[in-house]
Design brief:
about 30% helix, 3 helices, 4-stranded antiparallel beta sheet
Amino acid sequence: MDKIYIRDLAVNTIIGTLPEERKKKQKLIFNIEISCDLSRAGKSDDLKDSIDYKKIYDNILELAEMSCFFLLEKLAMETAKICLADKKAVSVKVTIDKPGALSSARCPGVEIER
């Protein structure tokens, strides 16, 4: 299966359950991997035969910057829905890291596959 991906997308958003997390935006790092068949786009050289990663990128930015979710799990699920809205997408893997959330670890995060 072919893949389209967006790596290391940094977004600042309100996320978390602690009172201090609800007051200040935090940096999150998204990695998105969309499984799809790219053979038609490879032959036609036409974006309509592929998944427009710029559109996915813009929609994820809008979701993350405007959201006030408590859990990374919810944000990951909504991100997956954006990716799967394109009928050419077969499946998606969404990873969201929350750097700085744990003092002795690089970052906690979530990964979902739909």
